[in-house]
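thought: fold this chain, then report.
action: predict
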Amino acid sequence: MLYGIIHYTYFKGGDTFIYLSESTLLGRTFLSHPNYYIGSILGWDVSVPNAIVFTYPDAAIFWKDLGTYMLVHFHALLYPFTLGHYHLHIFFIATIGLFASLNFYNIFRQILELPKFTLIVCCFFLPSLTFWTAGLHKDVYIYFGLSLFLLSLLEFQQKTRLSKAIAKLCVSIFIIGIIRHYLLVLLLPATIAYICTLYAPKRIWRTYLIVYSIFIGGTLGLAKFIFGIELLEILANQQTAFLAEVGGSSIKDVAPLSPTLGSIFSTIPIAFVNVLGRPFLWECKDFLQLIASLEILSFLVLFAVSLALRKQSIKSPNPLIHFIVAYAITNLLLVGLLVSNIGTIARYRAIALGILSALLTHILDFYHIYPKKSNQKNTSISNIDPTSFSKKNKAKLLQ
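observation:
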């Protein structure tokens, strides 16, 4: 509800209320004009009824904004239950977000060494992740799809419930594919490298580097010489589209990308600065930007503290951890390369930052003080002369 209030007052409605109104319009008029909607979905040339209806765009625009239209259509199916009321739509959003967090709790409980309280905080109470997956937006569906994807990989690794793992994998690919299909491109090389490390567990990061290098080169080559598609040009055009967006939190003086590998590699440092540094404190113009700045500063502090107070010895990490790190970093890199609006960056990076925050707490030594106390206690007990005790006291000491 707080998410809705902020968007209604600060963003004057924003995308979340546009999605609400469009899904409500679709839900109200579907029964009166079913032929129009069914024909439009199937790609037929159907004339628009003489009524106020949800108007379908051309096929090119539809496929370009597939995630938006799928979100609107799903929430249109909820219209008989919600009657267009925002807070009832949010009930479904909150339910999906809860199941996603439960999935991540189940995953992290098995692969990370964390105190239970810290694990609960990382899965259910990270402010930015909780906020950006709490609204009528696409983020909560990505969060849920990604949780199913990781859970299926973990079950494959453990070779348990393989049929359910396959079902979860298919559902996760479908959800991510219809909401933000480009994320599948980031998941594919990470998944290939993850499978390779299951059979060749040595030199894991070298395996990831080789797989990513082959994947990038092979994908660029196949797209250009077989399909005639310039992927680098698509990236440059997408960044141009973000630069053309008008907003009060746009980053000034962003250099446009050129469709070359050299331009992209030279922009990587700036991309990481934008996604892991913006908004700077001196750039903040309002309270929401200040919160976003404090959030990213908190992440950087957690990163520094985790390295400074890391565990002296960590058991061999689960292979899924390397997969999560690779995916999260490439996701952040893509956001930094393409997006030039601080508000959009804060929303797009929330899931990846939340996952990385949990991994950072994994290497943080929460108990670096307690072993000293434990050793002192053990030393004091070992210095006691057992011969000075009665048989009853000896039995208690042994226990």
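thought: worth noting. The two ends are 54 Å apart (CA to CA).
final: tokens above.
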